[in-house]
Amino acid sequence: MGLLSWLIRLAVFLVMMGFALSNTDTATLRFFGIPQFEWRAPLVLFLLIFFAAGALLGALATVPIVFRQRRELNRLRRMQQTSSTESLARPAGLVRTADSPKP
Length: 103
Prior knowledge:
Largest sheet: 2 strands, antiparallel
Shape: elongated
Distance between the termini: 65 Å
Radius of gyration: 30 Å
Low-confidence stretches: none
């Protein structure tokens, strides 16, 4: 299974490398048509930069969710820990269940 995974990775890499090598023509990036804000570079460089920027923004968008889930997990762990220590502190004879008769 590991060999198959590496063969698929190699195939994807070769396809991407072929794409990069076939798009080496110079492209011009203009910012609102202002001549001072014009950048000329190979098309593959623009694609790489915008792909990396999109991946970075996507990763940064998940940061608040991860921190919120970590806080919730820590809160739940503390609740579980305090409830388990409370159950150990109670004497066994005083614990009531739903089936036990009321005095």
